[in-house]
Here is the input.
Amino acid sequence: MAIKNRVHNIKLQFMAVFLVFSCPSLADDELEGIYDLSLEQLLNVKITVASLFEDSALFVASSASKVSEEEWRRQGAEKTYDAIEHVPGVYTAEFVHGQTVPVFRGYGGVEHVNSFLVLLDGIPLNNYSSSSANYGVPNYALGNLSSIEVIRGPGSALYGADAFYGVVSLNTWQAQKNTLQTWAELGSFGHKNANIRAHYNFSEHVGLSSQVYIARTDDEKLFHDFHQTGGNGIIMEDELQHDYKNITTTHKLQIYDAQLAYYYSSHEVEDSFGLSEFSAVPNGTHSNGDASFQALKLSHELNLTPRWSLESQLFYSQDQQVGLYGLLTPGEIPTEPGLTWDSKDSKTGASVMFKKHLNDEQWQGVFGFSVDKSVVDHFGAVFTGSPLDVNNKSRETAALIGQVDWRLFDEALQIIIGGRYDNYSDFGHYVSPRLGVIYHPQSQSAIKLLYGNAFRAPSVNEQVNNGLVQGGGDDLQPEEVDTYELIWMQETQKYNVSVNIYYSQTAELISFTPDADPGFAARYINQGEAESYGLEIAGRYQLGKWDVYGNYGYNQSQLNTPVKIEDAYPAFPDHIINAGLNYAVSPTVMLSANQVLQKGRQTDDGHVVSFKNEDLSLLSRTDVHLAWLFQAQRYNTSVYFIVLDIFDRQDTKSSLMEIERGNATPGRYLKVGVELSMP
Here is the structure.
């Protein structure tokens, strides 16, 4: 496809940047090793996404987590959402077109892949055609990011639609001093990647941070079998080649208090997971995909007084994807009747936020407004060769946001009240409230009682007719969820621990149901009420050179209407355990190990009655990472080895799509990398 031309253009673009950054005027300060065991930072996490202020996790009115670049690189993460796989209450599954998708707190059905909001430096990536970021931006490379913040639960009180069961905030890398850093990795299945990033200060008030990441996997063979539809129980053996390529680049120019940023990502995959094997689309488990994304953002921060500041941003984003389902062999067009997903979206938005900071006072707050316009240039989920369903369909929104955080009795008691009013051009308005009461028995502990409401607006895909499903039109209403949480947290200089009990009620679920119209297999309607409840326990303990951490998540979900179904989303594991350790063997040698366990899993049989599902066995994966850091004059060099699934179990992950026996995992995965940094 066009990816070779993109690679060439970006290489030319970045060569000039590289020459500037590699000049001899770099600062003399040494750069900390990327694998330093920064335990104080790990134990005392600062969260921004939950309140728009940088707060301790003890003080935010959400179940929020932060994952640093050091953590996900030690864990061997490769794609965007691999980085949050170890967050409590999060399950990551393979999805179409070579992407990995997170699922929050039990909702693991095929219709819920659009149930969380993704932000990129504050830019909302969910588009209008799918209400999801997972089609147009399947993988914004981790090499461009410095941290990822996650809200488990509702986020609409701050972020509006799509912040439904969760929020994922991607924070791109940016330095303050002159820096050049590069690394390259080689691994199993023909995997290779290279990353270069740098920062240069042209003057005291002008600086540029740039980065480019290129990755490719040539042959990640994945095996799976299924019962042939209408085949009298005959088992069909199948294999996916799963080749993919990614290019991601970010450039941020800081001029005094203003910043101009440009983002670009391209993802191409051949013969990856698709929809399922069913009669309407033969060989539906095979898919090709090509997606690209770019965005431009102008932001500004102004201190009005010592207590008040003004933050504003203006952005434009565009994404597009072509996905082909129903392939016989890689690179071919779909077999008839194949299915094509073809979408191109754009969004223009602006926001202004007034922020009142604590500054030794008893309250802080944020007040603001935002406007945006989403446009679907074209969209279709149609049988191959059919005309597209939609051209030039738009939606406009305007919102008012407010939140106040009172801290009373020397911060022993917090009361957080907030909400957001959204007005939509196509279906009216929606109000998303939130309330939090937090009691601090000690300065390093918290007991939280939280309530939050969230909604998800219907997408174009759900509103219009496509090749298989009849759209719900203007009759579709937003999905709604109310979530209640009781949390206990304790943090010290040596350890942190948290216990979270949650309960959610969801109404007006948008899903498809069998349709009497002979031209469609199903239709989208608001149907069903569901509930979910669970427990999340997490902790971390530091003793000398040892850093030990782990978490446990238990979840149960059920559909209450139109019929009662217990374990309504069987693909989501009932039990998820993550455990790991980091050990500083010496000042220059780091050993890390991670263990993942998942129990209580099935593949969602969805609407394909010929499936013969069975309970999946316990999933167990053990990963190991070993790194050496060398320092020589002005250079820091590290060499590291990663072994994912060291015991080569070649397991099966339960699938969000209607793939009968789940998605196969590749088994043992070896990777070696070399990193060079010049502070």
Notes: The chain is about 5% helix and 55% strand. The radius of gyration is 24 Å.
